[in-house]
Specification:
The chain is mainly β. Helix content is about 5%, strand content about 50%.
């Protein structure tokens, strides 16, 4: 990729990829992605991600910048420190963060930048339709 990439931040057409059931703590969350850039050689990913309401365990092997486009979420560390974010807010989840991600009460849509990128399915423990 050598040119500028425009990122479509509109709602996704499909949000149906389940979170690994072993990680789900509440609800039946499903997700969807629309990659804008994926570079496995450089370990770089950008794109839009959406999830339905639910709560699940997370363990980050990468650094991730999130810009919330719609909805609300709560991140809670293993130590119990919670942060809430909503549309218009941004945050970084550092590599090594462990805790829970909770989306709701409505769907969440965010713009992500992940590095190092090793395939978005690795975050959830199940292959997504594009990675199967």
């Amino acid at each position: 990729m050598t040119g500028i990439v425009r990122i479509d931040t509109s709602p996704l057409d499909r949000v149906a990829d389940p979170i690994d059931p072993a990680k789900v703590l509440a609800g039946a969350p499903v997700t969807g992605t629309r990659p804008a850039t994926e570079d496995d050689v450089r370990g770089f990913y950008t794109g839009v991600w959406e999830s339905a309401p639910g709560k699940w365990a997370v363990d980050y092997a990468e650094d991730e910048l999130c810009v919330i486009l719609a909805g609300r979420l709560r991140l809670t560390s293993e130590a119990g420190h919670a942060e809430e974010f909503s549309a218009g807010q941004s945050f970084v989840i550092p590599r090594g963060f462990r805790g829970t991600w909770e989306t709701g009460p409505q769907d969440l849509r965010d713009l992500d930048r992940v590095e190092p990128f090793q395939g978005i399915a690795s975050r959830f423990g199940v292959p997504l339709s594009d990675e199967a």
